Amino acid sequence: NIFAFGLFLSPIPTFRRVIRNQSTERFSGLPYIYSLLNCLICAWYGAPIISSGNLMVTTVNSVGAVFQTIYIILFITYTEKTQQLKMSGMLLVVFGLFAIIVFGSLLMTDLALRRIIIGCLSSVSLISMFASPLFVINLVIRTRSVEFMPFYLSLSTFLMSTSFLLYGIFNFDPFVYVPNGIGTILGIVQLALYFYYKRKAGEDAREPLIVSFS
């Protein structure tokens, strides 16, 4: 839970920059959309009505949903008009989809089946949240710069996914340890790319300037 709170707080430096510059620049809003959907579904999966012994999953993801909603509102406020409409539409889709999931699951009388279905949905949403930085990874590789891949976000993702991987293993809950195992691998990839391109940038900066007088 501590690492999860660290993940929720990690975008604060990014949004300080966004507010200061009055622009979202080339930052992507998709990770926050995926994170919100994931937090809502995982919070529902951890609820006693769906699965037992996962109340901490519900509490931390409920707090995470509040944080992600605030970040999305800030993103919509400072992004371009076309992106504002796109992000607003996606936000409505997330809440609508979550409402359908809640209503549909409450109609299921088979409690075991209800847990399996919501567990599968939470796993898919969690994997999509971990995979969402792939857009940023592509940008990092193309630009050879880590400017738009915040270090603390990548570190927090790795720490949180690793801790929940262990939590799921100790609780024998595949709906927790499988997606978080994938998240751990993707977190390692992000950190490896960050340090590689950060070091590369440092080496380029130390290269002597060649001045031609011809």
From TrEMBL:
On whether Transmembrane helix is a keyword of this UniProt record, the answer is yes
What membrane topology does the annotation report for this chain?
Answer: Multi-pass membrane protein
Q: What InterPro entries does UniProt report for this protein, alphabetically?
A: SWEET, SWEET_rpt
Kindly indicate where the leader peptide sits in this chain: none
Question: Got a GO cellular component term for this one?
Answer: membrane
- Residues crossing the lipid bilayer are 29-47, 59-78, 90-109, 115-139, 151-170, 176-197
Record localization:
Endomembrane system
Q: What GO annotations for molecular function exist for this entry?
A: sugar transmembrane transporter activity
**Gene3D superfamilies per record:** 1.20.1280.290
* Gene Ontology annotations of biological process type: protein homooligomerization
Q: What's in the keyword line of the UniProt record? A: Membrane, Repeat, Sugar transport, Transmembrane, Transmembrane helix, Transport
To which protein family does this belong?
A: Belongs to the SWEET sugar transporter family.
Protein name in the entry: Bidirectional sugar transporter SWEET
Source organism of this protein record: Escallonia herrerae
Q: What does the record give as the organism's lineage?
A: Eukaryota, Viridiplantae, Streptophyta, Embryophyta, Tracheophyta
